[in-house]
Amino acid sequence: MISHFRDLFGHVRLRPGMYGVQTYAETASFVTGCDAATGWLLLEGFHEWLMVQLDAESSLTWSALILELTLGTERPSARQLSAEAEAAAHDRLFDLLDQFLAVKEQRDGLRQVFAAYSARRAEWDALLAEELDDEDASP
Questions:
Q1: Which of 31, 42, 84, 105 has the fewest Cβ atoms within 10 angstroms?
Q2: Of 58, 34, 32, which Cα lies nearest the Cα of 47?
Q3: What confidence tens digit (pLDDT) does each residue in 65-76 have?
Q4: Could you give the angle at the alpha carbon of 104 between the alpha carbons of 91 and 34, nearest 5°?
Q5: CA separation for the pair 30, 57 (Å, rounded)
Q6: What is the C-alpha separation between 105 and 2, in angstroms, rounded?
Q7: pLDDT for the residue 74
Q8: pTM for the whole structure
Q9: Is 80 helix (H, G, I), strand (E, B) or coil?
Q10: DSSP 8-state symbol, 81
Q11: Apex CA 13: angle with CA 34 and CA 35, to 5°?
């Protein structure tokens, strides 16, 4: 199943107009539709994988995380991107999707994704605990 979607996303990347998508927001909606068609299994673990790539915990959606990875801290709304930002976000989305799906396609790939996320989450929690301890120790 995953290889089918990797192929499909490769085609959409090269010829988005043929699939009815022109903007990053439309492309993200298309990918979300593909995820919905699989009962939300296709992108299972994608958000967690992106947080590990970003090296930061976040409650943002995966589409917003990709904008953050692409554009840095200057995160305009996905509906207000310049032409250059649209192209960069579009390419980054398909690069990251392919990387993620390649990992997920491996034996125990999803387990590896969640193991990496769990390890990073423990590190983030420890850092937060240290920060809170430092705040409590401050006069």
A1: 84
A2: 58
A3: 999 889 886 666
A4: 60
A5: 25
A6: 6
A7: 63
A8: 0.88
A9: coil
A10: -
A11: 10
